[in-house]
Structure formats: structure tokens, C-alpha cells
Amino acid sequence: MRIKKAILTGGGRATRLYPITTTINKHLLPLANKPMIFHAIEKAVEAGVEEIFINTNPGDTSLPDYIGDGGHWGIKIRFYEQTGGPQGIAHVVNEAKKFIGHDPFMFYLSDNILFGDIKGMFKEFEIGQYDCMLALSEVPDPQRFGVPVFNEKKELIDVIEKPVNPANSFAVTGIYLYAGDVFFDAFKNIEKSARGEYEISSIHSYLLKHGRKVGYKEITGWWKDTGKVEDLLTANNLLLDKMDAEHFVNQSMTELGAVISGKVNIGIGSHVGKNVKVIGPVLVGENCILENCQIGPYVTIGQGTEVHNSSLEDTIILDNAYIDCDIFIHDSLIGKGVNLRKKKNGEKAGHRIVVGDKTIIEM
Asked: How many CA within 13 A on the CB side of residue 13?
């Protein structure tokens, strides 16, 4: 039976990305100047999904307001609040039971960025009439993930969540396929882990131990769980590299003397001064101002941002930031409305800083 429904994650607190995620839902953080969750939606649509259900934190309307009803992609998107607080991602899926009904579905962790094609996984799942199929990827730190356990015939026999001593270097990535009621029947029979969550690995372990047909497919192409700032920056850089040349167009008012090289996109209404050097790949949003600065490579700048007298490299800047000081910024994530400015003449020596919790500053 063909999979036409999918559940995507949109909740959680993303504490490892504080303080940025205290004011913006993690899934709306831009990668290649596109909200992270849009990349997941596009993967689902590409695979043939026609209806998506996205969980949200209670009271958070930012995702429905930004994403809409799915018409942009020619599908239907609905949202549901995650009740009862954080109880694990298996609980996220179970909360969508009324939307899924008895149909097969995909569960996709929206903070996973994948370059490979999942259409092959869908096809293999359908042809093989599997009860469940998991996407695996080889990683350097499997202890951070659910780890598959194989027998001598390379058959999947168990999945262990975050093992201290992983049996191998494979991780179960955030893409899962399920047939009909299989997931929901299993959920009734699992208990919370020691950390107080319903683990998705417990679902898979239960299915395997009760004779269900659980398959796996190794992901081809790059995959990353963007749980940390460095992961976001890596994903951003690789997405910029992957983008075709036709996506890079300079629509700004560019003064004579500015130097623009490589793959560069600058949005409508932006102004590029004569003493500016832009080295692609770079994406600059609409209504930005660049003056006396060097941008790139691997920089994305949100709309309404101004950059003066600075150098930027390997950095993501969100909307409406203001940077005007003699500074070289690299490997950084700068939030909405952040203001980095030079001191006024006559002000006392030293630095005036207003920063939020868990801010990182190297000086």
C-alpha cells in the first residue's frame, strides 16, 4: 500500500541551540535561507506524500502561521499540539493516531537534513510489504542515537537507544516507515525509559521481538541531525554547495567597484556598496545593506540585515540584524535583530554587552 501520509516534528525546546531557540522555533531556523522544516516537507512531497501532520508545542502558532495549509506544495498540512509535556518522540507519533487512522505513514524528524533520495526506501517498503522500515547511516558517534543490532546474517534483531558501548557505527536516522496500526499497537506495550520518555527505539525493539517484518535501508548521500550549532553550519554550507547555479541571481542595486564572485544570490531591494567584496557561495535576503565589508564564502544573510565595516565567513545571520564594527565573524549563528556596533566617540573604554543565557562570545 502506497504511503500518502507523514508526521513531521515541529515541537521540542532545542536547548542545545539556546539562546537562538528561546525566541524562534528550531524548525524555522534558516538553512540556505530556507526554514529547516521546509527541507523535510520537500523530501516528503518528493516521495509522494499528500498529507502531512506536524506537532507543535502548546500555544506555539509560529509554525502554522509560517507554513500554512500546504497549498504551496500542492498538499494538505495540519497541525496538532503536543499534550502532556515532552514525553519522547514515540509519544509525538502516538498523538497523531487520530489523523493517521489505519493508513501506512512516514515519521520524519524535521531537524534531519538529508541529501539522498527516499523514494527508493518508499518503493522497497511497499514491494517488500514490511511492517516497518528504518533508515540507517554510518556515523562517528553512534552512542548519541538508536543503534541497530544485527545477527551473523546481517539481519536486524534489535535497536538499542543511546548505548554506552555501541555494537557498530550505524545510527537509526530520523526517517521511519510504518504499516497501518503496527506502530500504535506497539506503543500500547512499551514503557517510558529511565529518562522518562517513550523511546522510538523501544517501538522497533518490540516489533522485532514480536515477529514483525522490520527492514532497513542505508541512506545514500549526506545526512545530518542538526542538534548543535556546528551541525547547522555544516548543513548550511553543504546545501549552498549543492544548489544549482540558476538559484543564484544578483537582484540588488550594486555600486560600481563592488566585487562579486562565485555563486551569489542577493535579494530584491538590497544595496551593495562600492567597497564590498562578496565571495560565493553566499545568499543575501531582500532589503539588505552591505557597505565596506567582505562577505563569504559560506554566508547566508536574512532579510532586512545591514552589514558595515566587517568580514563574515561560514556564518548564518537571521533577519534584521545590524553589524557595524571592525570585526571578523566566522563559524557563527547570529539571531534576529542582533546589534553589533562600534562604540561612539567619547565613550569609556571596554565593551558594553547585553547577552542572553548560554550565549557564546570569543573576544
From this structure: 8
